Structures are given as structure tokens and as C-alpha cells.
What does this fold into?
Amino acid sequence: MIKKFKTAVEINKKENENGTYYYFDMEIDFKKTVRVWISKEMLNIIEDRYGKLYIEFPIKGDIVKGKKPNSLILKKGSKNVFYINTDQKEGSMEIKNVKSKNLNIVAQRVILDDVEAILATTEEDELILDWEYIYHKRKHRHVITGIFKMNTNKEKLLLENITIELLNEVIKEVWKMVLKEAVKTLSFYPSERG
It folds into this structure.
């Protein structure tokens, strides 16, 4: 039922007498978009997939404001740039909470108070978010919640029916058990000191 989060964008090309320019548009509101221009120094991140151009996020770089309103420039930098899009055809999926230190949300798509896509920069190597998916089936409303985690190695983890707080509690309990077993193992062996 739940589709994966999209982390790639299709790239468009604009040509004129001054050269060729690459960009992608991100819808941020009903009939309102932000255009993200890709600087020439970042063209090496564009991939050709069956005749269409894409960028797969996350990438190393930075995003700055462009000269025109609603325009941004993706350029070289030391930050990690993340793009996450829920893009559900059935039901609605909402990004509830994004966890990362020093997170700068550059643009986000908000439809009826639901955050459906984000473009963000951070110095952290991973981005974790809570999400909620609502759909109707046979006149009943169903709600599924979970966690989505993505790191700079493009590894993704999608968990259903769990929150970040609950996951942290599980991790704490597992560590307690591991440490308890380690102490038992260490106390089993006699000390080698004389």
C-alpha cells in the first residue's frame, strides 16, 4: 500500500544564445513552484536514465537564493542536500517531523497543512522523519505511521507503525541487554592480574 519516498528529481534543460542551463521545478503550493538551477560546477551529478536526466539525492552541495523570486541555485558546498517527496496517488501521506541537527529546510510543498515534500540542507550524514499515511478503503479510514531514514550513502530505511521515540526506547533496551551480557561474560573470566 505505501509507496517508497521519491528521492530523485527529473532535470529540465533550457537553451539560449548564452548556453545550456539545467534546472528542476519543485511545487511548493497549489500552482506555485520554486525553480532550482544547477550550477555548472554541479553538472557531474546529473544522471541520464533512458533519455531523461535526473539527480538522485542526497548529494554534497549547498543551495542559495537566486536573483529572481522563487529561484534557488544548487551549487558546490560541504553540506548534504536532501530531497524527499511523498508523491502518493491514492490517499495522503504527510511528513510529520524531520530530525536532523542544523537542518535548513530550503523549500517544502505544503498542501492543506500537510508537508508532502522537502528540500533541505544539513551538515549531518542522515535525515530521519516521521510520516503518516491516510487512506480510505470500503468507507473506513486507515492511518499508518512510521519512520523514514536516509543517509548520504543513499541507504534508505522505511519502517511502518513505529515512531522515532519508540525506536529510541527499543535501542536503549537492546543496549542494556548487550551491556548486561558483556558484563556477565567479562565476570566469567578470571582476572589476569596477579
